[in-house]
Amino acid sequence: MFELSIAEARDALRARKISAAELTGAYLGAVETLNPELNAYITVTPDQALAQAQAADVALAKGEGGPLTGIPLAIKDLFATKGVRTTAASKILSPFVPPYESTVTANLLRDGAVFLGKANLDEFAMGSSNMTSAYGPVTNPWQRQGSDAKLVPGGSSGGSAAAVAARMALGATATDTGGSIRQPAAFCGIVGIKPTYGRCSRWGVVAFASSLDQAGPVARTVEDAAILLGSMSGFDSKDSTSANMPVPDFATAVKRGVKGLRIGVPKEYRMEGLDPIIDKLWQDGLAWLKAEGASVVDISLPHTKYGLATYYIVAPAEASSNLARYDGVRYGARVPGRDLIEMYENTRAEGFGVEVKRRIMIGTYVLSAGYYDAYYLKAQKIRALILKDFTDAFEKVDAILTPTAPSAAFGQGEKVEDPVTMYLNDVFTVTANLAGLPGLSVPAGLDHQGLPLGLQVLGRPFDEETVFAVGGAIERAAGFTALPTIRAGA
Predict the structure, then answer these.
(1) Which residue intervals of 39-173 are DSSP H helices?
(2) Is the domain covering 1-490 a CATH 3.90.1300.10 domain?
(3) 271 in helix, strand or coil?
(4) CA–CA distance from 383 to each of 164, 337, 340, 456 (Å)?
C-alpha cells in the first residue's frame, strides 16, 4: 500500500480495491511509528483524518469522488487550517487555532483530500535545513552509506518532504520563497514544484516575504505533483496577487514528451567548485533530453551572480514588515510586561527564534532611513534585471535545466554556525522566486554516499505544462528507484 503513487491510489480507490479508511489508517500507523524518530509532523489529526476517509468512502461508493478523494496528505504548518492549530513552527503562534481555512487547503478538501496533520518546517519558513523550528529539527529519512548520522531534509518545507519520502503521507503542501520546495525535494529524493507566482493563492498562508512566497506540492512522482498542483491552483479574489487564469491539465502534460523543445543551459550556473558528481548528473540530464528529441542551447543569465545578495535583501525586508503583526495583542502568545512597549519586547524576544530575529534585524536595517536607497531600492532594480535576463533567454529556449542544489543533504549541525554558508544552499533556486517563474525539482541520481540529487527545470511564467513535460522526460530517463533508509513498509 505504501508503494502506491497518488495516481495509483486514486485508481485503486475508485475501483474499490482498497478503501480510504484502510489507506488513511495505514498512513496514520506509519506516522505513529516513524514520527518520534523523524519529527516530520508538529500536529497529527487522526480523528479528523479517519472521519474524512469515511466520508470519502461514502462518496466513492456513490461514484461521486473528486480528483483527490481519499488521498492522505500532510499540510505544511504554514497553511491555516480551520479548527487545527497552525504554528508556523514558532513559539509565538503556538496557541493559534485559525477560525478559517486557507484557499489552497480548502481547494484540496473540496477535491476530497484527507489531512493527516501539520508538517514541521523552519520557523516562519526561514531556513534551508529545518533546524530552526521551535518544535525541534526534522530528520531526513535518507542516510549516508555506512553511517547512521542524522541528516537535514532541507528547508523550509523539510517536514513535508521527509513525510512524503518516508511514506508518512502520499503527498504534501509546501511553500517556496527562495527554494523551500525544490531544495528539500532534492535532499529527500522526491519531486517538488514551485509554480508561477500567482498560480496558487497565498490567502491563509502565513507570510514570510509576500512578493516571493508561493505555495506548491511535493510528491513522489512528477505525475503526482501535477495532480496536486491542479487541485491547489486557481484564481482567488481574496488574494490580490492571484492570477485570473484557467488551470490547465498538468497531469496530461507530464506524458507529452520533449521532441522539438529547446533546453537552455545557463553558463553562469557552471560555478567554480561545483561538485563533479552534480555536474555529471547535469550533463546526463541534458543527454537524456537530447535523446528524446530536444535540443540544447547555451544561454546567459548575466545577473545571476547578484541573485543571492538581492534575495537576502528583499526577503528579510518583507519579513520585517510582515512579522511586525506578531505583537502579543490580537492572537498568539503574549508575555506580559510593565507597559505596552515592554509587553511587545518580551513577547517578540521570547516568541521568535534566532534565525527569525536575524532576518528581522537585517530587514529593518535595509529599510531604515539612509539605507533604503543603498540596499532595498538597488536590490529591486537588480531584481528587474534578473527578470529581464530570463525574459530574453526564453525567446531562445522553452525551458532551462540546472542542478537543484549545490550538494546532497548535509548533517544536522553542519553549516549552522555560518549563516552565509547556509544561505548558499539557495544559490540555484532564488532567481526563480525573484523572477516569479515556475521551477520543478526531479530526483535524478545519487551521490557517492548514496544520497539523492535533483535536477531543476525552469520555465516561462504560467507554462508549468512544459516544465512538467521536461520533468516527466527526465524522470523516465533517470529511472530513479532508490528508497530512503527509514520508511514505512521497509
Answers:
(1) 46-61, 103-110, 158-165
(2) yes
(3) coil
(4) 33, 42, 38, 21
Q: What is the pLDDT of residues 437-467, one digit of tens each?
A: 999 999 999 999 999 999 999 999 999 999 9
Question: 464-478 and 222-232 helices cross at what angle (nearest 10)?
Answer: 160
- DSSP string of 412-433? TTTTTT-HHHHHGGGTTTHHHH
Spell out the long-range contacts of 482-485 with Cβ–Cβ below 8 A and sequence spacing 24 or more. 482/189, 482/443, 482/446, 482/450, 482/452, 483/189, 484/140, 484/141, 484/142, 484/143, 484/165, 484/166, 484/188, 484/189, 485/141, 485/142, 485/143
Q: Is 305 among the residues known to form the active site? A: no
Written as one string, the DSSP assignment of 431-451 is HHHHHT--EEEEEEEE-TTS-
What's the sign of the alpha-carbon dihedral 350, 351, 353, 357? negative
Q: Which amino acid is at 485?
A: T
Of 239, 236, 272, the C-alpha closest to 427 is 272
Q: Is 237 noted as a catalytic residue in this protein? A: no
Nearest to 40 by CA among 484, 362, 406, 448: 484
Residues 6+ apart with CB under 8 A from 47: none
Residue among 19, 76, 128, 320 flagged as catalytic: 76
Question: What is the strand order of the sheet 295-299 is part of?
Answer: 41-44, 114-119, 72-76, 171-176, 214-219, 191-194, 439-446, 452-459, 399-403, 262-266, 295-299
- When computed from its CA atoms, the radius of gyration of the chain, rounded to whole angstroms, is 21
Give 366-409 pLDDT, tens digit per residue.
Answer: 999 889 988 999 999 999 999 999 999 999 999 999 999 989 99
In the chain, the amino acid numbered 429 is T
Handedness of CA 287, 289, 295, 298 (dihedral sign): negative
Q: Write out the three cell numbers for 154.
A: 532541507
Active site residue: 90, 133, 156, 320, which one? Answer: 156
In whole angstroms, give the CA distance from residue 229 to residue 114: 16
* DSSP 3-state of 76: strand
Catalytic residue among 90, 102, 129, 180: 180
Rounded Cα distance between 103 and 402, Å, is 32
Q: Please write the tens of the pLDDT for every residue from 209-241.
A: 999 999 999 999 999 999 999 999 999 999 999
SS (HEC) of 356-377: HHHHHHHHHHHHCCCCHHHHHH
Buried residues in 103-131 as b, exposed as e (16+ CB within 10 A): bbbbbbbebbbbbbbbbbbbbbbbbbbbb
Respond yes or no: is residue 381 known to be catalytic: no
